[in-house]
Amino acid sequence: MEDDVRLIPLSALQHMLFCPRQCALIHLEQQWAENRYTAEGRILHERADHLGHERRRGIHTAMALPLASETLGLTGIADVVEFDESQQPAVVRPIEYKRGRPKAHRADEVQLCAQALCLEEMLGVLIEQGALYYGKTRRRKAVAFDDELRGLTLRVVAETRDLFDSNHTPFATYEPKRCDHCSLIDACQPQVMGKQRSAGRWLARQIQSLDE
What we know:
The protein has helices at residues 10-18, 20-27, 36-46, 107-123, 147-166, 176-179, 185-188, 190-211; strands at residues 8-9, 52-56, 59-69, 74-84, 91-98, 129-134, 139-144. The chain is an alpha/beta fold and 212 residues long. Strands 1, 2, 3, 4, 5, 6 and 7 form a 7-stranded mixed sheet that branches. Strand 2 and strand 3 (59-69) form a beta hairpin. It is globular, with a radius of gyration of 20 Å.
């Protein structure tokens, strides 16, 4: 990859699919704030984000494994990667830790699938499945890396690349279910920015009507 190409953090894909403006605030403007939800997620990750290895019952587990894809320009760290050595060749499974419960959107699955794409390029293997471990349910949710999810992941990678290349933060759009629990709501100000944008469009229409 050329030196001037900016690497995309794997976490940015999750942010992008959840909210492009949040992605830009975090990764372009370097803004961050913590609330109860981000603190719970950080504590959950601290349990896995210590580089190390262990073997149990034929499964080799790697924690905090650095990942990269030169082809896609991705970089990041996998919470856990399991190598099931009871099968030949060994079956590789990335495991991502998340607070809360499984979500209606696919942002977590896209981040996990991107990890699998990195591992496939690094190891020269096909990875068919991984898992998301949620802190509230304390259970794994199996995630199949089928054609649909792979296609969605590649699309999000391309959209995130476009966002990074533009170096532009999208306008705010207020959606209560998404915005009210976001730790960046004060920096984003979606209600205020959304009204300003609406006022700007109204003023532009008035000016246009005067010119006609």
